[in-house]
């Protein structure tokens, strides 16, 4: 079934090269715009903590022991 869909896509591509290129460009632009907005929002969210921006936080976790249950995803990420 996958082979049929690939064959159908290739036949459609040969018939409408400009339309296929336009669709690929629009999808690429949408992904790029979304990633730009998400990166900008993340950077601005970190800037809102003006007192903490100049500091470097390095969590030190002993790998030989079990991690505490109070360590959240956000604690580990930032």
Q: Could you characterize what this model shows?
A:
There is one protein chain. The protein is an all-alpha fold and 78 residues long. The protein contains four helices and no strands. The two termini are 45 Å apart. 69% of the residues lie in helices and 0% in strands.
List key phrases describing it:
4 helices; 78 residues; mainly alpha
In short:
With 78 residues, the chain is mainly α.
Distance between the termini: 45 Å
Q: Main β-sheet, in a few words? A: none
**What is the tally of helical segments?**
4
Overall geometric form:
elongated
- Topology as a string of helices (H) and strands (E): HHHH
How large, in whole angstroms, is the Cα Rg?
A: 23 Å
Beta-strand share of residues: under 5%
Structural category is mainly alpha
What's the number of extended β-strand segments? 0
Helix coverage percent of residues? 55-70%
- Average pLDDT for all residues: 79
Low-confidence stretches: none
Write the layout of secondary structure elements.
Blueprint: H1 2-15, H2 17-47, H3 50-53, H4 73-77
